[in-house]
Design a protein that fits this description.
- The complex is a heterodimer.
- Chain A is α/β, with parallel strands linked by helices.
- Helix content of chain A is about 35%, strand content about 25%.
- Chain B folds into 3 domains: about 220 residues, Rossmann fold, CATH 3.40.50; about 100 residues, Rossmann fold (3-Layer(aba) Sandwich); about 190 residues, Rossmann fold (3-Layer(aba) Sandwich).
- In chain B, helix 1 crosses helix 2, helix 1 packs across helix 7 and helix 16 packs parallel to helix 19.
- Classes of the chains: A alpha/beta, B alpha/beta.
């Protein structure tokens, strides 16, 4: 059975939506899975809605998550939940920015990675794999603050 | 198992990797979503890449490179090929000994374009071979194949990609495809094959059709066609990204995936159709494959007309296969993009709104001036059109309205195709004069901060020759040329525009201030270049 994991990351331009999806795609790739990742570039730096699809499994065909089939919808801006709600499967999990206390982060810009921490509770990758993927996708000066954010996001779910 | 040769890359990145691996002589193009990343990646990989002032010049430079026996990759978005169409149609006739590969990155659904034209039509109209990759692996392989085909038949090749192939990251393996080494460029005279005067062109056209007939035979026998034999009850003919949606939407269907979509492998298609009970063509955009296959007398079904608009996806393909023409759920509107807080364009559109101007707009970030809170753009067509359209409005409108017309154009767009508009303005000035607002933010901002001839820096941001906009415009005969920074004096800017509108003269007002997103990098480049 070719079970595909479908993840949609959504938010506004400049929030790190594409970086978050890069990290997930790289993580799955590093674990030896087939991966596809898709989004629309172009207007993303002008503050508009941005979303990115990541799909991984034994074999992935379309790079786009079909509406209503996202297993996880990770939303970095509260007002973008409604815009992207149709992506989520009836049994899917919504991971909303409101689930993480931004004030606990050393740098609020790491909120994208913090939400990956929250997401990580639901996926079968080890912390070591996550950390390696985060490191591969960010400059060295940002490693410590983002790894901290990852574990802060992961802890939030444990507490709730 | 992790494959050390495998990488997770976008289609654009793999085209660059293939160009590098092929020992490309030159990559050139003009930035345009979704094609921009190809040349940026080629430069990052250490390959020869440069920006041209526009797509026509890029293609002409590519033609010269290939005439010298080199390998040229010319990149552009779909509408860029309109600009480059003039050389395209004639180089198709020519005997091109090197490789000339033209990447057309189409944007079905118009994620960031002014139309969703289907450039597969160009391959047919110009009579050149076309390859359509469906993922990053094929983008790599087909780029190499395009070079091979171009050199084998001395004909330019169109590499036609779409947004979801250009920008999706999928796994690709760089090994396994090898080309002969590029030849050392040299000039071999071949007047009848390269000088397209009517006497030679008549022969050359016949030669082109002979080449295409041979390539069609090659495509039948050993082209990149893929047959997936499953149930005989449903057959699907498809190409490009649609193939991926099809395999997911209908895993039980038999599929004929076409890699080279001009010239078509008509007999392979006929055989496939003969093996299935029902055969439907699933393609994004125009019914190009459907019409071509039908014209060959092969009976296939077309998608319902509603699916001609926008991108396809798995759900839409399922609807096509079941003949579902019910209304599709409208997507919840997202937050539209906006001019950045502090963007120098903001002051311009505030002034134009205050002055109740009729604004002939152009292609770039300043197109966002049409949205709230400015709502100050009245028309926008294509690169450079602001000037010509503004002049036409001035010629036709009653005087009171004509005097409200301004043309708004950015620096990169001006270099791309604004200069001929200025020539028209000087040559055929409207009785009321005209006002052109040149928004010089020192970069090609909308596509992601690319350099252009007006910045004086090359693609890799090193110092090179610079076209000085005000010198050029003055030399072309515009007497009133102002250079201002509206951010420092918004009311002064508005007063200057007002005064210029009142005069029956030609004025160009250059608002010069670096794009906020690019300013820091520009300073760094300038420091490095000192």
């Amino acid at each position: 059975m070719n079970k595909i994991t479908n993840i949609v990351i959504a938010g506004l331009g400049g929030q790190g939506v594409l970086k978050a999806s890069d990290i997930i795609a790289d993580l799955a790739f590093g674990a030896g899975l087939d991966v596809k990742k898709s989004e629309i570039h172009g207007m993303s730096q002008r503050g508009g809605s941005v979303s990115s699809d990541v799909r991984f499994g034994d074999h992935v065909f379309s790079p786009m998550v079909p509406d209503g089939e996202a297993d996880f919808l990770v939303v970095l801006a509260a007002d973008q939940v409604e815009v992207n709600a149709a992506a989520l499967s009836p049994t899917g999990v919504l991971i909303n920015v409101s689930q993480v206390d931004e004030n606990k982060l050393r740098n609020k810009k790491s909120i994208n990675v913090a939400l990956l921490g929250t997401l990580s509770r639901h996926l079968k990758f080890t912390d070591e794999e996550w950390i390696a993927a985060i490191k591969r996708n960010l400059p060295e000066t940002l490693h410590a603050v983002n790894i901290e954010a990852f574990f802060a996001g992961k802890a939030e779910v444990a507490a709730s | 198992m992790e494959n050390k040769m495998a990488q997770l890359l976008s289609g654009d990145e793999t085209v660059a990797a293939a160009a590098l691996d092929a020992g490309i002589t030159l990559g050139t193009g003009y930035p345009g979503t979704p094609s921009t990343e190809v040349l940026e990646e080629l430069e990052r990989l250490g390959g020869p890449a440069q920006w041209a002032p526009n797509e026509k010049v890029a293609l002409e430079v590519g033609i010269g490179t290939a005439l010298a026996g080199g390998r040229a990759l010319v990149t552009m978005k779909h509408v860029g090929l309109n600009v480059a169409a003039d050389p395209l149609f004639t180089v198709a006739y020519m005997d091109v000994p090197g490789a000339l590969v033209i990447l057309s990155a189409d944007d079905p659904g118009m994620a960031s374009s002014q139309n969703e034209q289907d450039n597969r039509r160009y391959a047919v109209a110009a009579g050149i071979p076309m390859l359509e990759p469906s993922d990053s692996q094929e983008a790599y392989e087909f780029t190499l194949r395009a070079i091979e085909i171009a050199e084998c038949w001395h004909v330019p090749v169109l590499l036609r990609m779409t947004t979801r192939v250009c920008h999706s990251k999928t796994i690709m393996n760089r090994a396994g495809v090898s080309l002969p080494s590029p030849r050392v460029p040299e000039y071999v005279r071949n007047v009848s094959g390269r000088v397209m005067i009517p006497a030679y062109a008549r022969q050359a056209h016949r030669k082109l059709r002979e080449k295409i007939a041979k390539i069609a035979q090659w495509n039948e026998n050993s082209g990149p066609t893929q047959l997936i034999s499953r149930s005989p009850s449903l057959g699907i003919i498809t190409s490009g990204i649609s193939y991926q949606h099809v395999r997911e939407a209908a895993p039980e269907a038999s599929v004929l995936k076409l890699g080279m979509t001009n010239p078509l492998p008509v007999e392979a298609i006929r055989r496939f159709v003969g093996t299935v009970e029902r055969c439907i063509v699933v393609e994004e955009g125009d019914p190009y494959l459907f019409e071509s296959i039908s014209a060959a007398g092969i009976k296939v079904e077309d998608k319902p007309s509603m699916y001609r608009f926008g991108e396809l996806n798995v759900k839409r393909v399922q609807r096509i296969l079941s003949g579902d023409c019910s209304a599709e759920a409208a997507p919840v509107p997202g937050k539209p993009p906006a001019l950045c807080p502090g963007c120098p364009h903001r002051i311009v559109f505030t002034a134009l709104k205050n002055l109740n101007c009729i604004v002939s707009g152009d292609i770039g970030c300043y197109g966002l001036g049409v949205l709230s809170p400015f709502e100050a753009v009245d028309t926008s067509v294509c690169m450079g059109a602001s000037i010509g359209v503004g002049l036409g409005l001035r010629h036709a409108l009653p005087e009171a309205d004509a005097k409200r017309v301004v043309s708004v154009i950015g620096d990169s767009t001006f270099i791309h195709s604004g200069m001929t508009g200025i020539a028209e303005m000087v040559y055929n000035p409207p009785p009321t004069g005209h006002v052109v607002l040149l928004l010089d933010n020192g970069t090609t901002a909308m596509t992601g901060m690319q350099e252009h001839p007006g910045t004086g820096r090359s693609l890799d941001h090193h110092k090179t020759g610079k076209v000085v906009l005000e010198d050029l415009i003055k030399a072309m005969g515009v007497r009133n040329v102002h250079i201002v920074d509206a951010t420092l004096d918004p009311s002064g800017y508005e007063a200057l525009v007002k005064k210029s509108l009142e005069k029956p003269e030609l004025s160009v007002i250059i608002n010069r201030r670096a794009c906020l997103l690019a300013a820091k990098s520009i300073k760094e480049y300038e420091t490095c270049n000192e």
